[in-house]
Design a protein that fits this description.
This protein folds into two domains: about 5-110, no CATH class; about 115-210. It is built from seven helices and two strands. The chain has helices at about 20-25, 30-45, 55-110, 130-140, 145-155, 160-175, 185-210; strands spanning about 115, 120-125. About 10% of the residues are buried.
């Protein structure tokens, strides 16, 4: 008998070509009755009432092959279910791992952004004053920052050669407004240089590049 728990999910079964000779030996009436018995058995999982002894005998010969094939089908379905469960569990574990790493990274960045300046380790936002000339040297040695600030300058690569002089002007500006002791780390220096350039430095460069023409009388 076929397991009833998987009957409803089964939409097909195997009818072997080697059975053709047996069907050919039966009358059309008996062959039709036999095929109906087979369908009924596969559909319900129970052996139907068979009144004809010939049909009953042939079905009994076919039944082991039918059961064996259906067992293979059921096993394959079960394997697919298990594989699906394992895949879902793996995706869940991977998602949890990624989320955990992102959370750890975010917490680490927000709690402690450690910078190195003059061989010292300092925390982002710590109340410590740095030598402005040393900040200039560190900024000029930061290739990634220089590339970024060149793109932001709107002057392109030509800004590289201008950068040392612009940093001197930036430092002079910071000193002139009495803020030289307020820069506590490199990140703050980068941020404030960008602000100075956008609001002061770029305009000065543009003014310097203007040519004054005298219109003759």
């Amino acid at each position: 008998m076929i397991g009833k728990e998987v009957i409803m999910s089964r939409k097909s079964f195997v009818l072997y070509t080697e059975w053709e000779n047996t069907f050919n030996r039966l009358s059309n009436e008996l062959a039709g009755e036999l095929i109906k018995v087979i369908f009924d058995y596969v559909r319900t999982g129970e052996i139907p009432q068979i009144d004809n002894a010939v049909v009953d005998g042939v079905f009994s010969a076919f039944q082991p092959s039918i059961d064996r094939n259906i067992s293979k089908y059921d096993a394959a379905i079960e394997q697919r279910k298990e594989a699906g469960k394992r895949s879902a569990e793996k995706r869940k574990r991977d998602a949890t791992t990624v989320e955990s790493r992102l959370r750890t990274s975010t917490v680490s960045d927000s709690v402690s952004d450690t910078l190195s300046l003059n061989g010292e380790s300092v925390r982002e936002g710590a109340n410590k004053v740095f030598d402005l000339q040393s900040i200039k040297e560190q900024l000029l040695s930061d290739e990634l920052w220089k590339e970024s600030v060149c793109m932001q300058s709107t002057l392109g690569v030509s800004f590289i050669s201008m950068l040392p002089a612009q940093l001197d002007k930036f430092i002079a500006y910071i000193v002139s407004i009495g803020e030289e002791r307020s820069i506590s780390n490199i990140s703050d220096a980068k941020r404030r240089f960008t602000y100075w350039w956008q609001n002061h430095g770029r305009k000065e460069v543009q003014d310097e590049n203007k040519q004054v023409y005298t219109v003759p009388n």
